[in-house]
């Protein structure tokens, strides 16, 4: 098909999608948009670096055939003032994979933000931001090397859905009346009103992508970040749907954090990814205090907006933070910073953000060797002090170079060749060592680790004491008392009787049923005073429900069961301690 200005290369082949899979030929045609402002400077530099890496990794076998497409000011010049021509959107969809520089958002009526237009028209529902520290890059953290996460931000829903009603308009009045009169909602007169839709479909497709990424890239965990303690039916639902998709579609390769601490006693089984969740505000603290606890993050739109920029600042800022907006297959990789117009055409700025977006793109194509070449030589060049102005002002004794000279330095290193296997081997070894250290901490102090890593307990399984002390029916009460004293506990579980009923004997039982009844502790058998049947709750019981049951029944403890077995005890003291520590408990 003939386009007005876009020329599809006659060499190379298109990437295709069939049977739910993307097929990347050895000579793919890939779209690019130069971008506005500093866009041309960084794009020219990056095209040279990507091409050099592909050539070094694969020789003649593989090559990218670039197809220039137009958005922003360059498009406006070519398409009679149209910043977002239909043919560009069509080609980006058709070529499946593309990369773009920053774009000026035209100010004034009639224009949608170009990034929003792209996202909506191509249904790019996942905004993916890897954030990782490269040796030599200035950072405000003491141990920035601990940051290595990939954030998946939902891109289409939440407060970005654009459902807002301005104060003083008839629409606002109509919605306010409905909320007050029909829904009995209470809020101040004249409030602006916004609606935050979060759907099962939108949440699940985002989390599905994040889990699949974790599987494909040997990652350790996926953390669902949400504000479900306050917004139960949007943020809380996102979390629940996230767990659902993990269980329903990835059940064989995922476990929950609850299982990790419970069933597996803190030891992560080989080949399993841990699905956990964190409240958004805690996550900001955690990414500063214990960033290595987190790996892949999946979150709603607004949380993701804040969190991705905050984490990027930990490892060198927006100048080098890469990103991509991805649909099921169609993907647009992009520099995450703006057009920095004051630096346009000065050959000055850092190409890092676009460069690493290209690294993501190479990984997306499955061209890991080319991607690794760039990631591995980059820290060497920066550590040698060869950097653009933004880093030079933060590194003593650095040599400031322009965008294209920085690209030259990288290309020289790429051509010089590095021992990819040895470097990857060393990285893997380091990764394995760090995983082991985290595991040892979990094994030694499970409760402390759980709290320190920002987990808020949800279920009785998160709080219960697992080291159960059991006695048999025929044991004497005296021995049961010794067992309590020796283990510093106030109850023992009595093993199932002939009818399969478990029982419990508490200190209070001994006082009331032995001392008050003037019985002998040495001759009375446990079965004579045990409470049966035992009141037990499934391990996944919500803590609030357990608390309600305790107060309704006037008990001080519940036993916890899983698969027909009693596996722990949760007491009112455990619940008291949790509320005291966490202030609130997640539903
Ligand atoms: P900006 O273009 O990102 O620039 C802000 C500052 O960030 C620059 O002045 C510079 O800091 C630093 N910076 C940005 N890119 C850099 C790079 N590659 N290397 C080194 N430093 C870099 O943000 P803005 O000035 O708010 O926005 C300008 C235009 O970009 C607007 O039209 C906006 O709509 C658009 N924009 C587009 C995108 C996109 O297309 N994805 C994203 C954001 C903004 P110093 O001044 O300290 O050197």
Structural description of this entry:
The longest helix is centred in the C-terminal third of the chain and has 25 residues, at 420-444. The chain is an alpha/beta fold. Helix 12 (368-383) packs across helix 14 (403-416). An eleven-stranded mixed beta sheet has the order 4-3-5-15-14-6-7-13-10-12-11, with helices on both faces. Strand 3, helix 1 and strand 4 (65-69) form a beta-alpha-beta unit. It has 22 helices and 23 strands. The protein is elongated and about 100 Å long. It binds NADP nicotinamide-adenine-dinucleotide phosphate (NAP).
Mean pLDDT: 91
The poorly predicted ranges are none
* Termini Cα gap: 55 Å
The proportion of strand residues reads: 15-25%
Helix content: 40-55%
> Which strand order does the major sheet show?
4-3-5-15-14-6-7-13-10-12-11
According to DSSP, the number of beta strands is 23
Coarse structural class: alpha/beta
| Separate helix tally | 22
- Which word captures the global form? elongated
Ligand names? NADP nicotinamide-adenine-dinucleotide phosphate
Largest sheet properties: 11 strands, mixed
Mind telling me the C-alpha Rg?
29 Å
Summarize this, please?
Helices cover 43% and strands 17% of the residues. The chain has 587 residues and is α/β, with parallel strands linked by helices.
Topology:
Blueprint: E1 16-18, E2 21-23, E3 29-33, H1 39-58, E4 65-69, H2 72-78, H3 86-95, E5 97-100, H4 114-121, E6 126-132, E7 148-154, E8 164-165, H5 170-182, E9 193-194, H6 200-216, E10 221-226, H7 232-250, E11 254-256, H8 257-261, E12 273-279, H9 280-289, E13 296-299, H10 301-314, E14 322-326, E15 331-335, H11 352-365, H12 368-383, E16 386-387, H13 389-392, E17 399-400, H14 403-416, H15 420-444, H16 446-452, H17 460-463, E18 470-471, H18 477-487, E19 491-494, E20 503-506, H19 507-515, H20 526-529, E21 536-538, H21 543-553, E22 557-562, E23 565-571, H22 572-582
Parallel strand pairs: 3-4, 3-5, 5-15, 7-13, 10-12, 10-13, 11-12, 16-17, 18-19, 21-22
Antiparallel strand pairs: 1-2, 6-7, 6-14, 8-9, 14-15, 19-20, 22-23
Helix pairs in contact: 1-11, 1-12, 1-14, 6-7, 9-10, 11-12, 12-14, 15-16
The structure holds NADP nicotinamide-adenine-dinucleotide phosphate (NAP).
């Amino acid at each position: 098909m003939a386009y007005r200005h876009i020329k599809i290369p006659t060499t190379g082949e298109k990437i295709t999608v069939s049977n739910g899979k993307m097929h990347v030929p050895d000579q793919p045609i890939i779209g690019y948009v130069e971008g506005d402002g500093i866009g041309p400077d960084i794009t020219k530099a990056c095209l040279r670096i990507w091409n050099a890496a592909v050539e070094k990794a694969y020789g003649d076998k593989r090559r990218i055939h670039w197809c220039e497409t137009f958005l922003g000011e360059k498009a406006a010049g070519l398409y009679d003032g149209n910043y977002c021509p239909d043919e560009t959107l069509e080609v980006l969809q058709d070529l499946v994979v593309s990369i773009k520089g920053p774009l000026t958002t035209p100010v004034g009526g009639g224009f949608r933000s170009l990034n929003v237009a792209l996202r909506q028209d191509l249904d790019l529902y996942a905004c993916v931001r890897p954030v990782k520290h490269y040796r030599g890059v200035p950072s405000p953290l003491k141990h920035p090397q601990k940051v290595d996460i990939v954030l998946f931000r939902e891109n289409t829903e939440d407060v970005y859905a654009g459902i807002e009603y301005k104060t003083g308009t008839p629409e606002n009045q109509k919605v306010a009346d409905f909320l007050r009169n029909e829904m009995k909602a209470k809020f101040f007169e004249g409030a602006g009103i916004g609606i935050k839709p979060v759907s099962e479909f939108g949440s699940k497709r985002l989390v599905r992508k994040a889990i699949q990424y974790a599987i494909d890239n040997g990652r350790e965990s996926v953390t669902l970040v949400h504000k479900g303690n306050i917004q139960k039916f949007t943020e809380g639902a996102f979390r629940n749907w996230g767990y659902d998709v993990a269980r329903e579609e990835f059940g064989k390769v995922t476990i929950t954090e609850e299982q990790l601490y419970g069933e597996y006693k803190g030891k992560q089984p080989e080949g399993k990814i841990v699905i956990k969740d964190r409240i958004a505000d805690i996550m900001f603290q955690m990414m500063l205090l214990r960033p290595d606890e987190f790996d892949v993050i999946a979150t709603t739109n607004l949380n993701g907006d804040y969190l991705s920029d905050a984490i990027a600042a930990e490892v060198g800022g927006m100048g080098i933070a890469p990103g991509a907006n991805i649909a099921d297959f169609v993907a647009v990789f992009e520099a995450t910073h703006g057009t920095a117009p004051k630096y346009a055409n000065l050959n000055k700025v850092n190409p890092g953000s676009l460069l690493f977006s290209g690294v993501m793109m190479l990984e997306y194509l499955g061209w890991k060797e080319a991607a690794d070449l760039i990631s591995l030589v980059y820290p060497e060049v920066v550590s040698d002090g060869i950097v653009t102005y933004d880093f030079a002002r933060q590194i003593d004794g650095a040599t400031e170079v322009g965008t294209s000279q920085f690209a030259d330095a990288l290309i020289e290193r790429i051509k010089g060749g590095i021992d990819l296997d040895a470097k990857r081997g060393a990285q893997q070894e380091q990764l394995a060592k760090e995983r082991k250290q985290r595991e040892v901490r979990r094994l030694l102090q499970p409760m402390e680790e759980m709290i320190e890593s920002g987990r808020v307990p949800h279920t009785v399984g998160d709080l219960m004491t697992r080291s159960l002390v059991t006695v048999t029916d025929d044991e004497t009460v005296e021995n049961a008392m010794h067992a309590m004293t020796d283990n510093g506990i106030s109850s023992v579980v009595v093993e199932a009787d002939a009818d399969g009923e478990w029982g419990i004997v508490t200190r209070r039982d001994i006082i009331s049923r032995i001392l008050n009844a003037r019985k002998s502790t040495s001759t009375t058998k446990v079965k004579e005073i045990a409470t049966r049947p035992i009141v037990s709750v499934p391990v996944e019981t919500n803590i609030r429900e357990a608390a309600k049951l305790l107060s309704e029944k006037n008990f001080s403890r519940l036993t916890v069961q899983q698969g027909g077995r009693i596996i722990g005890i949760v007491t009112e003291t455990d619940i008291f301690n949790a509320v005291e520590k966490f202030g609130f408990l997640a539903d």
